[in-house]
Amino acid sequence: MLVMKKKLKYLILGAGPSGLSFANYLKKSGENSFLVLEKEDEAGGLCRSKVVDNFPLDIGGGHFLDVRQPEVNKFLFMFMPRNEWNLYNRNSKIQLGKEKIDHPLEANIWQLNINEQVEYLNSIAKAGCNTEKLKPKAFVEWINWKFGEKISKNYMLPYNNKMFGKNLNAIGTYWLEKLPNVSFEETLRSCLEKRFYGQLPGHAQFYYPKKYGYGELWLRMAESIKEHIEYNVVVNKLDFETRKVNDFYRAENIITTIPWNCIGNYKKLKHTSVQIEYFPNNLKSKAHWIYEPNLDIPYHRILLRNNFCNKSNGYWTETNLERVTQTSCKFKYINEFAYPLNTIDKPKAISELLSFAMSKRIFGIGRWGEHQHYNSDVTVQKSINLARSFV
Fold first, then answer.
1. Where do the CATH 3.50.50.60 domains begin and end in the chain?
2. What pLDDT does residue 1 have?
3. How far, CA to CA in Å, does 136 sit from each of 177, 218, 235?
4. pTM beyond cutoff 0.90
5. Are 189 and 110 in contact (CB under 8 A)?
6. CA dist 258 to 37, 62, 149, 207, 367, Å?
7. pLDDT-flagged residues of the chain (< 70)
8. Which residue from 363, 312, 72 is spatially nearest to 64, judged by alpha carbons?
9. I need a surface site. Which of 33, 139, 320, 378 has the fewest CB within 10 A?
10. What is the model's pLDDT at position 202?
11. Thinking of the domain 8-91+207-390, which architecture would CATH place it in?
12. Phi/psi-derived region of residue 303, left when phi > 0, alpha when psi is between -120 and 50, beta in every other case
């Protein structure tokens, strides 16, 4: 019979970016009564890398370190110094038929032929956001209202269909409210001046390791607290009242960064799964990644490894598991939990769950702990903030 472990001050579920950042902040603050539980045999979560064809491949899809949060970068550079990273100006493309144009589409339609430009401009001028039409609530209508019918038809709707599934009206629009309206005047100006005009997209600049995959950073963070991590531990039970995990671990505070559906039946929290497939040939493009909205092509994104990973070859694709077809790829990996779905009733469901959990001194943090589509830099900042509130 297993004897329950000694009660800890902090029990951290998951050794991905959120869990590792929280744990390392504790250690650097002088706290040692903590333990991290990880179901895999190595740390990193969705940001892990594997060596494929003699070079690293990020098995969680495309993950990079954004430059926009100085505190995050300063913290992470303690484990992997700045001189071990390359800095890139983002080069991302959208495949529109036979043409590739820069992302975001609405700021770069000047790269298309003049007839296409006129059609897009006409569509944007008629968009609901530019004609003072009442903002709709359903996702598909909202996208048309926001971007105009041509951008919606050629890019936004098919791409979101590939990412999140066919029933787009099950998705809420609340997470898109931060997007600026597509301005007819700015789009026209960009076409006349033949240059990008408007708000820069996320990851306008990013860091990527010179000699390793992105997963190397998290392996080093795990190494710095190696005496505080237990691997190959599948968490499948969490008692809110006693703060016991798997009837074996217990703590004064539990920090969970793993999907809630791994430890309970939370039907309103939906997610998608993706398959990563690697191909050894190089594509004729200088892009770092390419978005593919064509519904006849299974994958929704290509990551061109040779354009950001030094001296490497090949590329990998990212495909919603529901759309996977038979391919002759050299390597593939399935991420069961890839993207949280922003369904209509998710905000209320996750808010109530997190509030109840917090009342029991159980704290959800990060992409899965908060069920939010956060990039790794955001999860690190939020984990630092939470840890700082304790120590």
1. 8-91+207-390
2. 43
3. 12, 42, 41
4. yes
5. no
6. 10, 20, 38, 26, 8
7. 1-6, 198-202
8. 72
9. 33
10. 64
11. 3-Layer(bba) Sandwich (3.50)
12. beta
Span 236-282, pLDDT tens digits: 999 999 999 999 999 999 999 999 999 999 999 999 999 999 999 99
Cα separation, 373 vs 175, in Å, equals 9
The amino acid at residue 16 is G
Q: Is 47 helix (H, G, I), strand (E, B) or coil?
A: helix
Burial class (CB in 10 A: 0-12, 13-18, 19+), 242: exposed
Rounded to whole angstroms, how far apart are CA atoms 163 and 233? 30
Task: Give the pLDDT of residue 26.
Answer: 98
Using CB atoms within 10 Å of the CB of residue 147, give its burial: 0 to 12 exposed, 13 to 18 middle, 19+ buried.
Answer: buried
Q: What is the DSSP string of 171-196?
A: B-SGGGTTSPP--HHHHHHHHHHTS-
Q: How far is CA 361 from the centre of its chain?
A: 27
Given this model, what pLDDT does residue 138 score? 95
Question: φ and ψ at 249, to 5 degrees?
Answer: -110, 145
The Cα 56–Cα 230 span in angstroms is 25
Instruction: Please report where in the chains the tokens 């594509």 appear, as a residue.
Output: 283
